[in-house]
């Protein structure tokens, strides 16, 4: 059996980053920049008013000291935001100006409307101003030519906003891996259809697809196939696996030791098609497979829902996030005090579902170890990580947990 770490390494090596692309700002959101971004223009683009008010020459109104001692100026122009033909301000006059409108040449300050009577033809100003007041200077935020974003930064809401403010339509980013999710099993029925005796609802497909998207990758398809090699192959064709349309195939089921193991049957029990089936010293999730189908990587997860999702957490989520250059590929590991004793099989790293209390720093095992108990996984907020050689963990022990809430 191989260790969890060895298999993690194999999966990480298998899922290679895609070459950078130029993505629209909408598509780039959540992805990582592959190049520094240099400002093509300055921000603000031009000197503009920081307030709704009146553009003036500060030396025209020193006598305006209070409502009792105002100064009155004729209003020569009205400058709303967006006006492009802004005339020069003549000394002894004011221009009514709105926030973001270009400052007229000849003016050197803005008096906020609150310090005036708001007049449209003549304005009475009841407070003085100083040279440069309430003017947002060109380049005061960003100087043209400056590096404003760095390679490795995630395109967040504010990054997208800055790029747009600079007039950029797209950004160079590491694209999402394109993932095809295939569930296998002749017993599986899509939710929404009645169950016949012996049938169960298919649950891994929607679950793994959701986990893929939550990890940041793209789901190009989810398919369910019975234990039939021809139908499995047909799905690979339908989604263009052999035409380079898929970067990663994730299957679930069909890799155990029984008969009717369709994934093993397709890829050869000996692994002669580039897929290797291995046993990993972990519980749940022992049977694993990995390899290549044409240009696509393939990871074959066990069918039990808990095994499938825990395997995804342990192997695929970090590998996908690394392939996207995301800054925190791993779930945060925390130490917590175990509230009740648990046992663990010898020679296997065990991942139990847990309830972590972030405030008290304690963790409680949640549900039995068997891998069909999906209910507990659905409400767990952490995985308890029990080392291979440990068979019993007494209450009060400090244990390592993977925090699933971050
Ligand atoms: P397998 O690995 O194919 O032997 O499946 C192991 C167990 O997981 C069996 O009880 C299957 O019925 C169940 N199982 C496999 N695939 C799915 C799935 N997509 N949804 C729900 N249960 C599944
Ligand atoms: Mg099966």
TrEMBL record:
- The yes or no answer to whether the keyword Transcription is present is no
The pathway is: Cofactor biosynthesis; molybdopterin biosynthesis
Q: Which Pfam families match?
A: MoCF_biosynth (PF00994), MoeA_C (PF03454), MoeA_N (PF03453)
**Gene3D superfamilies in the cross-refs:** MoaB/Mog-like domain, MoeA, C-terminal, domain IV, Molybdopterin biosynthesis moea protein, domain 2, Molybdopterin biosynthesis moea protein, domain 3
Q: Which UniProt keywords apply?
A: Magnesium, Metal-binding, Molybdenum, Molybdenum cofactor biosynthesis, Transferase
SUPFAM superfamilies from the UniProt entry? MoeA C-terminal domain-like, MoeA N-terminal region -like, Molybdenum cofactor biosynthesis proteins
Coiled-coil annotated residue ranges, if any: none
Cofactor section = Mg(2+)
Protein task: Catalyzes the insertion of molybdate into adenylated molybdopterin with the concomitant release of AMP.
What Enzyme Commission number does this protein have?
2.10.1.1
Look up and give the organism this protein is from. Answer: Mycolicibacter acidiphilus
Catalysed conversion reaction: adenylyl-molybdopterin + molybdate = Mo-molybdopterin + AMP + H(+)
**Where are the bilayer-spanning segments?**
none
Query: Hey, which family's this protein in?
Result: Belongs to the MoeA family.
Task: State the protein's name.
Answer: Molybdopterin molybdenumtransferase
Main EC class of this protein?
A: transferase
Domain of life, source organism: Bacteria
Identify the residues that the record assigns to the MoaB/Mog domain, covering every copy: 180-322
């Amino acid at each position: 059996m191989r260790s969890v770490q060895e298999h993690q390494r194999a999966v990480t090596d298998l899922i290679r980053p895609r070459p950078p692309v130029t993505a629209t700002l909408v598509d780039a959101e959540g992805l990582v920049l592959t190049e520094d971004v240099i400002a093509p223009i300055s921000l603000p683009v031009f000197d503009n008013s920081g307030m709704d008010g009146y553009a003036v020459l500060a030396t025209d109104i020193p006598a305006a000291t209070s409502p009792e001692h105002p100064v009155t100026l004729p209003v020569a122009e009205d400058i709303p935001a967006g006006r492009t033909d802004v005339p020069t301000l003549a000394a002894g006059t004011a221009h009514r100006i709105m926030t973001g409108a270009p400052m007229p040449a000849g003016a050197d300050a803005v008096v906020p409307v609150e310090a005036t009577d708001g007049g449209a033809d003549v304005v009475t100003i009841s407070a003085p101003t100083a040279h440069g007041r309430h003017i947002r200077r060109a380049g005061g935020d960003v100087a043209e030519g400056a590096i404003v974003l760095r390679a490795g930064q995630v395109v967040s809401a504010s990054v997208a906003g800055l790029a747009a403010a600079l007039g950029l339509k797209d950004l160079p980013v590491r694209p999402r891996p394109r993932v095809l999710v295939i569930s296998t099993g002749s017993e599986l029925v899509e939710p929404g259809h009645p169950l016949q005796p012996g049938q169960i609802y298919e649950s891994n497909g929607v679950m793994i697809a959701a986990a893929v998207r939550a990890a940041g990758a793209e789901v190009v398809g989810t398919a369910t196939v019975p234990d039939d090699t021809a139908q499995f192959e047909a799905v690979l064709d339908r989604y263009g696996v052999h035409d380079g349309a898929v970067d990663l195939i994730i299957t679930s089921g069909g890799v155990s030791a029984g008969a009717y193991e369709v994934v093993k049957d397709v890829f050869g029990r000996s692994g002669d098609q580039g897929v290797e089936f291995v046993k990993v010293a972990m519980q749940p999730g022992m049977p694993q497979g990995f390899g290549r189908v044409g240009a696509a990587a393939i990871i074959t997860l066990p069918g039990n829902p808990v095994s499938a999702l825990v395997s995804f957490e342990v192997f695929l989520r970090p590998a996908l996030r690394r392939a996207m250059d995301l800054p925190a590929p791993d779930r945060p590991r925390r130490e917590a005090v175990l509230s009740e004793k648990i046992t663990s099989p010898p020679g296997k790293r065990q991942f139990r579902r847990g309830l972590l209390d972030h405030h008290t720093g304690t963790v409680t095992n949640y549900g039995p170890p068997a891998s069909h108990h999906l209910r507990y996984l659905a409400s767990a907020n952490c995985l308890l990580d029990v080392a291979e050689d440990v068979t019993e963990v007494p209450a009060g022990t400090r244990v390592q947990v993977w925090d699933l809430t971050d």
